[in-house]
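Reading a protein record of the kind used here takes only a little practice. To see the layout at work, look at the sequence and tokens printed below.
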Amino acid sequence: MNTATLAPSPVTQAPRADDVVSRLRSSEIFRSYQQAFQTATGLPLVLRTAGSFREPLHGAKNLSPFCVMMAAKSRSCAACLELQQRAEADAGGGSVTLECFAGLSESLVPIHLGASIIAYLQTGQVLLQVPTEKQFRAAVAQLKKWNVTVDVAALREAFFQTRVLTKTHYDATVRLLASFAEHLSLVTNELMLKEASSEPPAVSRARVFIAEHLGEPLALQQVAQAAHMSAFYFCKIFKGATGLTFTDYIARARIEKTKQLLLNPHMRVSEAAYEAGFQSLSQFNRVFRRIVGESPSIYRDHLHGANAGTAGRNALACAA
């Protein structure tokens, strides 16, 4: 698992990250997967915004009784939050699993919006070996050092009820989450482009015009005219409704179109780029990497496997 250090700034500066995460959390695809995951594995699963200070796995099903008791104590809860923050710092571009003071494991799997991490799939509260009396006594001793008062008998019962998985089994579960996180990362750009129900009619007209002429050169004045507004006022209204500048919206719409075209395994990367309206392969590569967070060839590898990706890269090299 990747344990490269993550600088805090990309996490907190993701564009409209809270809004996108909220949409992901309420989406049918996430709610359906969350229910299936929790039912199939017996483990909790949440989608939490990067940098959140809510207690780990807040609101999930299948929580460990031991962790529930710890969350009710301020000092042990703070220790869990510190572990969560450390896991974020260690997550980098991939999944990370860490152990708490009592030996329970928790995992974070990052979700990207472009190059920024905006959220994590979080699961865990499991032991990777059968709990022992020695391990429990060590946990109680740590709680005493923190001056945390607990009902030892109740805590013992909760601790020995903790779900136990082999490391191999748990690692495989985290890899499944990584695949789902990659899927969610791919739909975040689409969510950024979705129309808000309360947007002005002029913005709706502009969206329709852009969609119908996406493969052609699009000038601000041209789209503003289609929306029946001056270019200056259009820029202001459009940014307020979509959260994106006109230029960034066009770029994201074209990238989304490119991604749809690349679902066809026989479509060359260069062909998809030009059909989506990009006039330059260098511009396309730069914009694609900025928005998606990886190169077009790597994205194609993820869709169709390494062989298709190699073909796409060769085609791109020839076209260039």
